[in-house]
Design a protein that fits this description.
This protein is of the alpha/beta class. The protein contains eleven helices and nine strands. The chain has two domains: 16-195, NAD(P)-binding Rossmann-like Domain (Rossmann fold, 3-Layer(aba) Sandwich); 268-309. Helix 4 (90-101) runs parallel beside helix 5 and helix 7 crosses helix 10. The termini are far apart.
């Protein structure tokens, strides 16, 4: 079957874009809007969402220039759309965009900021291929920056500076669109890295998803320890707070991430359990030498990471 080639983009330069739409102006979307302004973007920053009150708050914070709950109004003049919802909503948002822009001739690039990529990229590519959306391009993206806090109140203009941003193009992804999205994140100070959606989920499943799960389980475990007179939580200090801080993140957001990266996360959990059992065995044997060896190995890993921060 002959596939009509998609037209090229008119520009890959962020400075030349007249309008960028941010769909979901919370922590990440709000920080992106602030970062664009801070770094000299002169076009319109349009904030799109369902709750006009939250959008007006984003406007007051200076995260966007224009706000609307109307999809057509928000995207019809934009050349770049950044989707910032929970990962489970990205395909729905993309379907809505296709419904509005699918048959137009103007070229539009859509990207997202989701913490999972395989399900999102596969689903969105199928959505585009099954429509007449010849001028829509999608590039999977994931800026490695954030906070356990949520909402535009927590947004920061420097959130993405010196942060990593992973882009996950496939053999179907338009190279000009990749370059534009790469330039977006460079524009706000991030280092961009390219990998497949599958490699992203494997690596980030270990680097981000597993630590969040471990923090959640640790918080719950400590909360269950108590005597008749006191609770372990009454005596927690910086060690507990440092280890569990990320567990304060949005339950809705993280449950979606865990489920979309379920198979990878299950394998990482198995590996974590094996390591815990290994340490438990050393405790049972009073094996100080091997225990210290494991502690030193972990210490070296953490100290090495601190030097690169």
């Amino acid at each position: 079957m002959f596939t009509k080639p998609k037209p090229k983009l008119t520009t890959q330069n962020i400075y030349e874009l007249r309008q960028i739409t941010i769909w979901g102006v919370g922590l990440i979307g709000g920080s992106l809007g602030l970062s664009l302004k801070k770094n000299g973007f002169q076009g319109n920053r349009v904030g799109l969402g369902r709750n006009i009150g939250r959008l007006e708050k984003a406007l007051q914070h200076g995260a966007v220039d224009i706000v609307t709950t109307d999809l057509t109004e928000a995207i019809q003049d934009s050349e770049l759309i950044v989707l910032c919802p929970p990962v489970t909503l990205v395909p729905k948002f993309m379907s809505d965009i296709i419904g509005v822009l699918g048959k137009q001739k103007k070229r539009v690039v859509v990207t997202d900021v989701g913490s999972t990529k395989s399900v999102i990229v596969d689903t969105v590519e199928k959505q585009i291929n099954h429509t007449e959306a010849n001028s829509l391009f999608f590039v999977g993206g994931h800026p490695m920056a954030g906070s356990h806090e949520t909402g535009v109140d927590a947004s920061q203009s420097d959130l993405f500076e010196n942060a990593h941003c992973i882009l996950t193009p496939t053999e179907n992804t338009n190279s000009d669109a990749v370059e534009l999205v790469k330039n977006l994140w460079k524009f706000v100070g991030s280092d961009t890295h390219l990998c497949s959606p599958e490699d992203h989920d494997l690596l980030i499943g270990a680097a981000s998803h597993l630590p969040h799960l471990a923090a959640t389980v640790l918080a719950k475990t400590v909360a269950n320890v108590a005597t008749q007179d006191a609770k372990a939580l009454d005596f927690t200090a910086t060690g507990f707070r440092d280890s569990t801080r990320i567990a304060a993140g949005s339950a809705e957001l993280w449950s979606g991430i865990f489920l979309q990266n379920r198979e990878i996360l299950l394998s990482h959990i198995d590996m974590l359990i094996e390591n815990i059992i290994e340490f438990k065995t050393l405790l049972k044997k009073n094996d100080t030498k091997e225990m210290q060896k494991l502690l030193i190995e972990a210490q070296k890993i953490v100290l090495k990471l601190k030097k690169t921060d």
